[in-house]
Amino acid sequence: MVEQVEVAARAAAIEYAIRDVVVPAIELEKAGHEIIRLNIGDPLAYEGLPTPEHMVAAYKAALDNQDNGYGPSYGLPALRQAISAAESSKGWPCSEDDVYVTHG
Fold first, then answer.
1. CA-to-CA distance for 30 and 19, rounded, in angstroms?
2. Whole-structure pTM over 0.70, yes or no?
3. How many CB atoms lie within 10 A of CB 82?
4. Cβ contacts of residue 103 below 8 Å, gap of 6+?
5. Which of these, 44, 39, 46, lies nearest to 24 by C-alpha position?
6. 16-42: buried (b, 16+ CB within 10 Å) or exposed (e) per residue?
7. Cα separation of 5 and 88, whole Å?
8. How confident is the model at residue 85 (pLDDT cuts 50, 70, 90)?
């Protein structure tokens, strides 16, 4: 016999934005619409979406240069600077130290 586990109220209240997209997509598929699922971040699952050549070249260069480890915890400085500049150009006071880059 499998014991039923009670889900904590806090865990039950967690929202998962991906599911907010998937459920309507399933309903549209059932209604006969063709859906291309990109919600899981796997564009290679579709033959019509190959990896762009410039990305392949950049990946190969990173491997050749042993530049393929973990990046800095706060994100790459050049990316943080670019984000800071973009936000500052909109009138937001933003420095590189205000920017923290994460994945996802």
1. 16
2. no
3. 13
4. none
5. 39
6. eeeeeeeeeeeeeeeeeeeeeeeeeee
7. 49
8. very high
